[in-house]
Design brief:
Strand content: 15-25%
Number of helices: 3
Largest sheet: 3 strands, mixed
CATH topology of one domain: Histidine-containing Protein, Chain: A
Radius of gyration: 44 Å
Number of strands: 5
Shape: rod-shaped
Structural class: alpha+beta
Length: 197
């Protein structure tokens, strides 16, 4: 801000009746000139910068979520293709029939038992920890309230360990119930922290 002084002189002309002196008055005034930006303009620039940062952050988070969703879909597809061939193999193999034994007829017939066929093995393999983690994460992503909160899932020995942040206790309990509902999960350790927004 710069200052400069301006001087003005006013001369009054009064008709002479009696010899009166001419009166001169001097007025000093200071004029202030503003240079630079006002506070309002600076505030507007700061708010615009904050808004731009928020938009960029949201775009980055959206891109990361999309990448995570793509990876999860690819993992599901790999698991689906890995599980299909074992399920199709029994239908491709010819079914084995027990051999037919023809015995010549003799005067004394002794009943001969037919060889027993082993029962088809229906032992379903238990899902792996990785498959259980994917199932739980899928349930979280399918839930409209939980999908926007990053919840980490680790499974070891049938126990699911949950960690992350949610805004209220209801969502924390909901995540635990969803994890317990997955087949193969025996217990849930809920380490999710409630941080109100």
């Amino acid at each position: 801000m710069s200052e400069y002084t301006e001087k003005r002189t006013v001369v009054e002309d009064v008709p002479i009746k009696r010899a009166r002196p001419v009166v001169e008055s001097q007025y000093d005034s200071v004029v202030h000139e503003q240079r630079g930006m006002s506070g309002g303009a600076i505030t507007a620039l700061v708010l615009a910068a904050i808004a731009a940062a928020v938009v960029i952050t949201m775009l980055i988070m959206n891109n990361q979520q999309r990448n995570s969703d793509d990876e999860l879909a690819q993992e599901r597809a790999r698991n689906a293709t890995a599980q299909q061939p074992p399920a199709q193999q029994p239908s491709q193999q010819p079914s084995q029939q027990p051999p037919v034994i023809v015995m010549p007829q003799s005067p004394s017939t002794v009943p001969v038992p037919a060889p027993s066929q082993p029962a088809p093995s229906t032992t379903a393999t238990a899902p792996t920890s990785t498959e259980l983690e994917i199932d739980i994460s899928s349930k979280f992503l399918d839930d409209p309230d939980l999908r926007s909160y990053p919840i980490d899932v680790k499974v070891a020995g049938g126990t699911a360990m949950l960690s992350g942040h949610v805004p209220n206790d209801g969502l924390r309990t909901r995540a635990e119930k969803l994890a317990k509902s997955v087949k193969g999960i025996r217990s849930v350790t809920n380490n999710i922290v409630v941080k109100p927004e």
